[in-house]
């Protein structure tokens, strides 16, 4: 089975909300002017939702990138320490011989 991430779930939600809004507009007994105004309002709300989710995802991605950089830096420091300890051990071993 395919896994559905957060972005997929948000996408499915947005599509469902859009289909529901379109059906509600088609079945609503309103005048053309009222319907156009409602469509414009809902489109603006949808745009705001997408923009806010985009900012949220961007912030999460930036946090993950920073965490990844920190982990790489820490691992690099560990490896450098291990390499230096190995060099010291080799020097002390060869100095005895």
Structural notes for this entry:
The protein has helices at 6-27, 32-96. The mean pLDDT is 86. It has two helices and no strands. The protein is mainly alpha-helical and 97 residues long. The protein has one domain (6-96). The relative contact order is 0.05.
Indicate the overall shape.
Answer: rod-shaped
**Total discrete domains:** 1
Cα distance, first to last residue?
62 Å
Number of helices: 2
- According to DSSP, the number of beta strands is 0
| Structural class category | mainly alpha
What's the helical proportion of residues? over 70%
Mean pLDDT rating? 86
Poorly predicted segments: none
Q: What proportion strand?
A: under 5%
Based on CA atoms alone, the radius of gyration comes out at 28 Å
Which quaternary structure do these chains form? Answer: single chain
* Largest sheet geometry: none
What is the string of helix and strand elements?
A: HH
């Amino acid at each position: 089975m395919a896994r559905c991430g957060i972005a997929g779930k948000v996408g499915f939600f947005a599509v469902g909300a859009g289909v529901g809004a379109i059906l509600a507009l088609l079945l609503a007994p309103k005048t053309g002017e009222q319907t156009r105004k409602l469509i414009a309002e809902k489109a603006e709300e949808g745009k705001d939702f997408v923009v806010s989710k985009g900012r949220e995802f961007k912030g999460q991605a930036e946090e993950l990138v920073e965490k990844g950089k920190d982990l790489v830096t820490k691992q690099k420091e560990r490896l450098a320490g291990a390499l230096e300890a190995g060099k010291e051990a080799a020097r002390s071993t060869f100095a005895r011989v």
